[in-house]
Amino acid sequence: MATRGVAAACVIWKHRRNPCLRSLSNHFNPRIIPRGLKYQVRAIQGASVDPVAPLKNPHPQNWKIKMLYDGDCPLCMREVNMLRERNENRGTIKFVDISSNDYSPEENQGLDYKTVMGQIHAIQSDGNVVTGVEAFRRLYEEVGLGWVYTITKFEPIGKVADAVYDFWAKYRLQVTGRPSIEAILEARKKNKVETCGDSKACKM
């Protein structure tokens, strides 16, 4: 260990009378460096390197609420990305893309794709499911933006907010230039058949 420490600290200069070189002369025989090079650092053959400890997971599985979102919705993704960035140092929100082929209703309180496409759903760590404006309220609270939806806790503001969101949820596919939910479901079904064949592992 002492030899490796000295070797690592020493820079072998072109001048042979370098005191650092003399201190290592009993341990290894350095090659003469080419002309024009001022100095050269060489590793000792056979020296071991201590392994680097793996980084700890900065975001342990301590999520408090799970956000089910439509990854194919461009406007929705703006909000999802904002929440994801705010959640970076908290890890309290788990994001689940329902448009992914890997989405599993069984792992999300039995909520299938069509149901979640109707309006936003969030699942708390205790299994409780919240929807609509209430879901946004809980999600925003987890990233320190609860004040944005605080006013929706009071009536009649709460009812107005619910009505506005329900209108958006009903027509968001048309607003974002996407096909109807029926056409999307048919396309997903066709894609599942082509991708999975008769495999029972693939689910809608």
TrEMBL record:
One of its GO terms (molecular function) is protein-disulfide reductase activity. It holds the Pfam family DCC1-like. It comes from the Eukaryota. GO terms for biological process: tissue regeneration. GO terms for cellular component: mitochondrion. InterPro entries: DCC1-like, DCC1_Trx. This is Thiol-disulfide oxudoreductase DCC. It comes from Arabis alpina (Alpine rock-cress).
